[in-house]
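User: Watch each token:
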Amino acid sequence: MTYIFQKTISPDLLIQYKEPLEITWSKDSFCEHFDNKKSLNIELILDSKFIGILIGHYLYQSQDVDEFEILHIAILPKFRNKGFASNLMKELEKILKINEKSLKIFLEVSSMNKFAIKLYEKLGYKAYNERKNYYGSNPINPSSLQNAILFAKTLNAKT
């Protein structure tokens, strides 16, 4: 088994896998994101097969501190619950730690997504806030609104 993490990703690839990855962005949104010099995206490939993606961007950068936001992390359905999302998160942290600045990573997740919440907690992310009724209806229960849980993790903390 050979993992490959690529940072050069084509918006066309994401458009091709948009539905199974449950990404709601338009083609214009993808292109705008990938044109942004502050974006950092990682594609996971296993034995020449696309497995999943992590999409993110820097929120703030200075000489001492960086802030990064994970916008979307997704694994194709047949590869879920096999540790691939964890591998993507660890690869992101490895990339972000290189500069040795203090860095804070932010993300949000639906309160209904118990698998993701468990993953983020296992990787050391801490919930720090909740947005009530943040997400609209979901396909399983169209009348329900979902809360968003905000998580953060600090790397290379300066003491």
Q: What stands out?
A: The mean pLDDT is 85. The longest strand covers residues 49-61.
